[in-house]
Structure formats: C-alpha cells, structure tokens
Specification:
Layout lengths: L5 E5 L3 H11 L4 E6 L11 H4 L2 E8 L2 E7 L20 E5 L3 H12 L3 E9 L2 E8 L5 E6 L4
Length: 145
Amino acid sequence: MYKVNVFLGFKDQAEEAFQLYSQVFNTPIEKILRVKDLPNGTDFSSEEGQKVAWMCLQLGSIQLWGEDRGYFAQYGTEPANPNQIPRQFISVYLADKTEADKVMAKLAQGGKVILPFGSNFFSPYYGRVVDAYGIGWELMVPGQP
C-alpha cells in the first residue's frame, strides 16, 4: 500500500500560502523547517535562512508539503501566475455546496476561478480555481448529479 503526499514549490510564499490553506481547511500547520535549520544552513545568508525548506499540514488523508524554491536555484524561481492554468490540480471533496462555495471564495482571492461550479457526470457540484500562488484546486461535492 502506498501513501501519497503532495509537495508544492513556491517563490518565497510557502508560509503565506500555507497560512491560507490552514485557514481555508481548518487544519493546523504541523511543522516548519527553515533553511537555517538544515545541516548546511550556515551556508545561506540570514535572509535565505528564514525561507521555508519544508513544511506540512494534514489535508484529509494526505499531507500537503511545501517549500520556498527560491533558495534552490536549479529548480527555477518563476513567479506564481494565477492566469496560467496549471498542469496539476489538488482535488478536494467537500461535504456540501455551502462548504464548497466558501472554500472556492477563499482560494479565489488574488487568484482566478477557471471553472465555476456546475453539475457534470461525476459530481453535482464541481469547479476549479487557481489560487494567488499559482496552485490549481479542483473542488467537488461527491454524489450523482
């Protein structure tokens, strides 16, 4: 049996993004590891040392992990772009339309709804949003339309 987690890279906005996700999904940030606390943490400037090397929160049965990619130059430092549709989405089942609407509204602040809620063959209420950090979210209420 596999356990799957989701790892997200940000341009110096990991902590800010995870504060939002913590609030949206009402779950605490479990751990933050700063660059300065890595075994080679003294190799970085004090500014870089404050960046997030790894953090996590529990989202249902998975852990959502994140990092500030800015200090990993080989990974690139492209800025988040909510107008660009991401290649991946985090798919979240929500209890009902009211909860789905609240989550969509919070994630859309500074981002963009790319598919408003509607019914389709696999969900009575389904939509997509790209948040202000360029992360794609697929939100749905389970059940038959």
